[in-house]
Amino acid sequence: DGGITQSPKYLFRKEGQNVTLSCEQNLNHDAMYWYRQDPGQGLRLIYYSQIVNDFQKGDIAEGYSVSREKKESFPLTVTSAQKNPTAFYLCASYNRGTYSSGANVLTFGAGSRLTVL
Amino acid sequence: QKEVEQDPGPLSVPEGAIVSLNCTYSNSAFQYFMWYRQYSRKGPELLMYTYSSGNKEDGRFTAQVDKSSKYISLFIRDSQPSDSATYLCAMTYSGGYQKVTFGIGTKLQVIP
After folding, report:
1. Is the model's pLDDT at A103 over the cut of 80?
2. Residue B62: helix, strand or coil by DSSP?
3. Residues of chain B contacting A113 with CB distance shorter than 8 Å
């Protein structure tokens, strides 16, 4: 079945460590996204990528980095510069052909929960 | 003021009730409106999608968009305990890549 796989599901990090969250999709979607979800704040966009080897900052990119070397993969690194990294991280993808009107309808992965100890 | 406003709840209803979930928005450029359902500790899944104003029905679910009032609704008929989840409204513009703006989500509990 086609979908988005995020790993690990749960991750614990000590302060000062970098961690990388994996996101892989086999939907052949062009665009991929990383969101952060916190209680009471909804989904906030961290980074997005429309094509391989290109990505743009979202609303809360500080302290995060990404790469897009392959169409299927969009890993997110949470660096030690991110002041409050404990959150639920969601990866999503989008293909303009999903709906005939071209609407930006996202398909999400199951999420990764990061806790800083 | 946020671009999209949504009451976080929680909203508790008895099984079989009709549920009404709502969002208001301020950006008149939004043309595509979506509702996602998110179970606890899971990723959101697309429930309904509508373009511009009007109604769309899918089984027990009806989505309504009133662009003149900048108001969207999701109705759930004959609610079931399995409908207990957080419901996120989302909206975007037309054409190409556009950033999707989400509401904060309304937590719904359907009590047997």
Report:
1. no
2. strand
3. 41
* Chain A stretch 84-113, residues whose beta carbon is closer than 8 A to a beta carbon of chain B: 88, 90, 92, 94, 96, 99, 101-111, 113
Taking the CA of residue B28 and the nearest CA in chain A, the distance in Å comes to: 16
Instruction: Say which DSSP state A95 is in.
Output: -
Which pLDDT tens digit goes with each residue over A31-69? Answer: 899 999 998 888 999 999 989 999 999 999 999 999 999
Q: What is the pLDDT of residues B54-103, one digit of tens each?
A: 899 999 999 999 999 999 999 999 999 999 999 999 998 766 566 788 99
Residue B37 amino acid letter = R
Q: What is the largest CA-CA distance in chain A?
A: 46
Judged by CB atoms closer than 8 Å, whether chains meet at B102 and A109 is answered as no
Residue A109, phi-psi category: left (phi > 0), alpha (psi -120 to 50), beta (remainder): beta
Contact status, residue A13 vs residue A2, Cβ threshold 8 Å: no
> Using CA atoms, how far apart are residues B71 and B101, in angstroms rounded to an integer?
14
d(Cα B68, Cα A87) in Å, to the nearest integer?
A: 36
Report whether A33 contacts B97 (CB < 8 A): no
